[in-house]
Amino acid sequence: MDQGAVTELKSQLEAFQQGHLLQFWETLDSAEKQLLFDDLSSIDVAKVTDYYRRTTQQQCIEKTDDRLRPVPDECYGSVSRMKSDELQGYNERGLRAIAEGQVAALLLAGGQGTRLGVPYPKGMYNVGLLSNKTLYQLQAERILKLQRLAMELTGKSCVMPWYIMTSDHTKGKTEKFFEQHNYFGLKSEDINIFEQHMLPCFGLDGKIILENAHKVARAPNGNGGLYQAMGTCGVVQDMRRRGVTCMHVYCVDNILVRVGDPVFVGFCQSQGADCGAKVVKKAFPTEAVGVVCQVDNHFEVVEYSEITLETAEKRRPDGQLEYKAGNICNHYFTTDFVDAVINQHEDELVHHVAKKKIPHVQADGTLVKPTSPNGIKMEKFVFDVFQFSKQFAVLEVLREDEFSPLKNGPGPGAVKDCPQTCCQALQNMHYRWVLAAGGKFLDGSGSTRPLIPPLSPTVQSPVDNCEVSPLVSYGGEGLQSAVNGKSFQMPLLVDEDCVLELTTARSQNGANGEPTAKVGRVV
User: Fold this and answer.
1) What gap in Å lies between CA 350 and CA 380, rounded to an integer?
2) DSSP state letters, 357-423
3) Which pTM value belongs to this model?
4) What is the DSSP string of 77-135?
């Protein structure tokens, strides 16, 4: 690094009002100077400042009511309104596609666990299940079970490859975690962990923020950075090599996610869809969730803040909300569709403003961790590609079976989207599975417990402590031989080895803790 290169860099930065990034230059040692020089040289300042300008200019929220239309009935399906043979048909079609190696799972895992209050990726989090399994393990075991179900149906040994998009903050820890746990029974060559791109963070004044005197503050470019990352990391090429024709894309924090759901895959394929979305019914008109709908004849996710109350409260003749399709970041894409997005449309995807608390260095060299938002992270959204779909499909699923996100940390003030609610949502679902398979639950006095636990878990209601391993059942199937005609005391753990009534409390040690040994009565 010669002085001429530094002078040129300084001129480039000053041309875009970012000269402050070199304010500590004279106080740095030679190694720190090189780090800062390399860091700044890797930034296309003209491009990122243009991103900032365009992103902040479009911040004004425009109500879109006059341009909205609900999803047409012909491309909208609902599992609660389908007959059992129709669901079975979609399920078998999806399993056959998996058996042919045509389906991949793609996990969005680039976000940090900041709101959870942990220094590791969300996927490593243990919400306190009886098994102490983390989100990553639950998802891995669902993939294993799907592969077995596909083989049972078709007689073909198969692989559903797992692509995991991480970020600079989560990639190393995720790779190490998988290695330490022997990839949870999957083959390492069938797991592709790749990294999304990072963008500089901006202050509210339009200045790029320094994390410290020799490093720019950066953040992942949102889950919509998926397409750029897939292109630069060769993910689509790997899918083509494997014969993958479609993928299930989902977020890491949904403990109930049905990874690679064959019903969803089969439904979308039957619709001839290039792009699809799973949704849940909005709980009430003003629920703070995006709505899948049409805007100017293109499919989009419209944020609740972009719709007036009058429109949000509109109802159909059957009493259901007109705009009921709540987005849960659970999508189907064909490989051809993603390839077209990468090569033809990626530059059309706009960034969105996310105001955040960004640690930074002040002009006097003091490092600060702000207590209120002081800057902007620019993010793209994975669902912004819906507008490019030529054949769209929407499948409405039951919230209590498929959606319970982990957003907030534990604690006495936690009442929503926290470890306690996620834990109970999964256990309530498993409770219903055991009942549906012919099992019964007894309370301490030997009386039969209620047939249906609360469908909307809160941390105040008691956890039912019933857990079924994904290796035993993917979606409630295959439990009859283990539970039919039997009565159980809780806590109850159904795993591959046995059905176990636990008689000792189990620890909740978090992602890095050791699980308590299983102690209890084999049923």
Assistant:
1) 6
2) ---EE-TTS-EE--SS--EEEEE--GGGGGGG-SSEEEEE--HHHH--B--S--STT--SSSHHHHH
3) 0.91
4) EEGGGS-HHHHHHHHHHHHHHHHTT-EEEEEE-----TTTT-SS-GGG-----TT---H
For 32, which DSSP code? H
- What's the rounded Cα separation, in Å, for the pair 68 and 302? 9
Tell me if 153 sits within 8 A of 129, measured CB to CB: no
Q: In this structure, what token pair is assigned to residue 339?
A: 């390839």
Pairing relation of β-strands 291-295 and 68-69?
Answer: antiparallel
8-state DSSP, 226: H
Q: Determine the Cα–Cα distance for residues 180 and 173; give it in Å rounded to an integer.
A: 10
**What is the rounded CA–CA span in Å between residue 242 and residue 342?**
19
d(CA 431, CA 342): 43
Take residue 251 and report the two structure tokens written for it. Answer: 């977020």
Mean pLDDT score across all residues of the chain: 91
Q: What is the pLDDT of residue 414?
A: 78
Report residue 56's pLDDT band, with 50, 70 and 90 as the boundaries: confident
What would the two tokens of residue 260 be?
């690679």
Q: What is the pLDDT of residue 523?
A: 57
Only one residue has tokens 């109350």, namely 309
Give the single-character DSSP code of 183. G
Q: How many whole angstroms separate alpha carbon 191 and alpha carbon 440?
A: 39
SS3 63: coil
3-state secondary structure of 151: helix
Q: Of 192, 254, 184, 292, whose CA–CA distance to 402 is shortest?
A: 254
User: Closest by alpha carbon to 404, among 429, 418, 427, 422?
Assistant: 422
Give the span between the Cα atoms of 164 and 110, in whole angstroms.
Answer: 9
